[in-house]
6-phosphogluconolactonase
Amino acid sequence: MSVDYHIVGDGNELAACAAELFTTVTQKAVADRGACMLALSGGKTPKLLFEKLGQPQFESLPWQRISLFWGDERFVPEGHADSNYRMTREALLERLSVKPAAICPVNTSLPSAEAAAESYATTICEIFPDSAIENGWPIFDCILLGLGTDGHTASLFPGDLTINEKISWTAVGRAPDNSQRITLTLPVLNAARQVIFLVSGSEKAAVVAAIARGQAKNLPAAMVKTKKVTWLLDAAAASTLVSR
Ligand SMILES: O=C1O[C@H](COP(=O)(O)O)[C@@H](O)[C@H](O)[C@H]1O
């Protein structure tokens, strides 16, 4: 596993740096394999990235070769304020003149979160080419992740047994407020070619430093050990990390 850190000033710089990484990752995947399979994250931090990617200078990205999935989703209707898909649609997808090869949100209109998780695994399986499934796991070119102050990532929460899932591609995670969320499982995160954590804000500084120093090995975000892990932090999120 290689881990690298990029520390930038603020949320806008973070979005600019993330957009550059996004460009590199998508272009490389398309050059190497003809397609790019990406999972997007929810949360506050990626919104600025999505708005940036919706600007005209990113129209030349190989959108028609990019398939978009979500690393996690709240079990709420598609138009709900908490929907990760709604946020991405408004911040990015509605602004794109060239449409991605596939846009695959979680179907949250199904009767239960379990049904939505199961159906999402089927969707991934249908869209992924056979060559992008290895040893029974889908190989995402890149998964964008966030980090909660409690160390959760995607919808893998500390203390929730979903983190132990070893067979399924998707599962239902339970957030501390007891709400249900559909999430990619840890083996899927770890099978990806690369994950990029986007983290901003001083409230994340302590957990970022604890994970980076190996002092929080049992937190879900610390259990992400993909071949290539990139942490993109703004100065506030990196403040504890760089202060000692
Ligand atoms: O990976 C993720 O992380 C976040 C934490 O988000 P933030 O709002 O604190 O930036 C999480 O809740 C989100 O659903 C997820 O995709």
Remarks:
- The CA atoms of residues 209 and 243 lie 10 Å apart.
